[in-house]
Amino acid sequence: MKTALITGICGFVGSYVAINLIERGLQVIGVDLSDKPKNKKLEDLINAGKVKMWKGDLNSFDFSSLERVDHVFQIAGKVSPWGDIRSFDKINVEGTKRVIDYAKDKGVASFLYLSSVAVYGFGGYSDLREEAPKNPFDNPYSISKLRAETMVVEECEKIGLPYVVIRPGNVYGPYDYTSSTHIYSKIESGKMPYVDEGKYKSCFVYVENLAEAIVTAGITEKAWNKDFNITDGFGETLHEYFSLVAKEMGVRDRFISINAHLAKTVAAVVESFYKLFKIKKAPLITKFSTYQNCVDYHFSIEKARNILGFSPKIDLHEGVKRTVKWYKTLKN
C-alpha cells in the first residue's frame, strides 16, 4: 500500500488532502503544530487509527524519526497579509528545505509544494498561464512563497527528486475559519466592502476541488516536475460570488462599494501607520488584501485540465451552498 506524509495535516487544506488520500486507499501520516483538527471527518479518521500524526513545527520537528513514505505533501506554511519577511522565510523557505532533506534521506518518490497564485503579483490578469513572469507584490507572504517554490525546484532538480508546485487561488469551503467566516459574517450584516462594485474577476477554488488536484498531481508521474495553477476556473467576479453567498444565506445583497484609488490610498496610509509605530498585529485593511481586488485576478487551469484531467466536480453554486450550510452551524 502506498503511503503519504502531509505537513500541516490539521489545517484547512491539509485536512482535505488527508481525507482524499485515505479515500484513494493510501496510508497517511501527518505533522502539524496542532494535534486537534477542526475538520470533523479527519478527527474521526485519526481517532479510528486510520491516520497517524505527530505534533511539531517545520523548523524543529525531527523528520528523520518518521518512517519512509512514497509521497510528501508540503502543505504547512505561514499565511498572513502582514508580518516580517524573516519570519515568513524561516517557515516557508527554511522549513520547507528541512522537509526536502527528509524526502531525500528516505528516498521518497515525489515531493509536492503548496505555493500560491500570489507569486504572480497583482498586475491585472485574465486566464494567466503558469509560464507568465512571477512579479510578487511587495508583501512578505508573496515574496517568501516565490522564494520557497524557487528553492523547491532548484533543490529537487539537484538531488533528482520529482517535484510538483501547486498554486491555488482563493480557497474557500467548510472549516475555513479565516477568510470564509470573515466574509460571510460581513455579508450577513450587510457590511461587506468591495472595490468598484466588485466588477473584477477573482480566482476562487472550492477546497475539495483543490484537494483532488493536489492529490492527483502528487501521485501521478506525468504531473511531476511541473507547476499548476488551480482554481475552479469559472471567472466569477467578486460581486457574483458575494451575491451567491447572500442569496444562499437568505439576506439582501447589500455591499459597500469603494473606489479603487481610494481603497489603495487608505490601505497604504494604514500600513504606514502600523509600520511607523511598529505594530505587530495585522491591520484590518492591508495593501495585499486590497490591491488583489482592484484588478482582474484570474488564472488559466488548462494545464491542469490537460495533464491532470482536472475538472472541478463542485461548481460555484454548490460550493457556496455547502460552505454557507457549515457557516450556519457555527451559530448553533
Describe the overall structure.
The chain is of the alpha/beta class and 332 residues long. It has a domain at 3-171 and 204-231 and 299-312: Rossmann fold, CATH 3.40.50. Helices cover 42% and strands 17% of the residues. A 7-stranded parallel sheet has the order 3-2-1-4-5-7-11, with helices on both faces. A two-stranded parallel ribbon has the order 6-13. The protein has a two-stranded parallel ribbon with strand order 8-10. Strand 4 (71-74), helix 3 and strand 5 (110-114) form a beta-alpha-beta unit. The longest helix is centred in the first third of the chain and has 22 residues, at 85-106.
**Rg, Cα atoms, Å:** 19 Å
| Number of helical stretches of at least 4 residues | 11
Estimated share of beta-strand residues: 15-25%
H/E series, N to C? Answer: EHEHEEHEEHEEHEEHEHEHHEHH
- By DSSP, the count of extended strands is 13
Q: Whole-number average pLDDT?
A: 96
